[in-house]
Design goal:
Mean pLDDT: 75
Largest sheet: 8 strands, antiparallel, barrel
Low-confidence stretches: 53-63
Order of helices and strands: HEEEEEEEE
Strand content: 25-35%
Helix content: 10-25%
Strand order of the largest sheet: 1-2-3-4-5-6-7-8
CATH class of the largest domain: Mainly Beta
Radius of gyration: 23 Å
Structural class: alpha+beta
CATH architecture of the largest domain: Beta Barrel
Number of domains: 2
Length: 149
């Protein structure tokens, strides 16, 4: 009986060590998710390169869709001229999440889903001095890939 107790105690401590190591590696892996996000790189003019949004023209007009992020928390979106309508300029606001991994673009209230071009909540996949990739976190948009203008 004594051997059995020693054996089970030893197995419990090995299991606890294994579980602890597993949790340590999982937490380490998750925290490295957005290492390449440099939020200070957001400020400036960006042009859409890849656009999965159905409401924005992709073909010949892609180089004309511009996002301008200003230091005061405002965002200006310019859409191109097309056969259906003239160009439009949308004046919005933006907020970056606490961990620099989300970007919310909104017109009046960031907590309400506004029906405005470009408005939405995005996960920042990549943000460097020349490239930005945003993945939509709501049902309005999809993935945007932008390049520095």
């Amino acid at each position: 009986m004594n051997y059995y107790n020693k054996f089970t105690k030893k197995m419990k401590s090995k299991n606890l060590l294994a579980i602890s190591l597993l949790l340590f590696f999982i937490i380490g892996f998750i925290s490295c998710d957005n290492d390449d996000v440099e939020i200070n790189q957001l400020i400036g003019k960006w042009t859409v390169v890849i656009n999965d949004n159905s409401y924005l023209p992709i073909d010949n007009y892609i180089d004309f869709i511009e996002y301008t992020f200003n230091t005061d928390g405002t965002c200006i979106i310019h859409t191109p001229n097309s056969l259906e309508s003239p160009h439009h300029t949308f004046y919005l606001k933006y907020v970056v999440g606490v961990n620099n991994n989300t970007l919310t673009i909104y017109k009046n209230d960031m907590n309400i889903m506004e029906n405005e071009v470009g408005a939405g909540k995005y996960r920042i996949i990549k943000l460097t001095s020349s490239e930005m990739i945003l993945d939509s976190m709501d049902n309005r948009n999809k993935t945007l890939k932008l390049r520095r203008k």
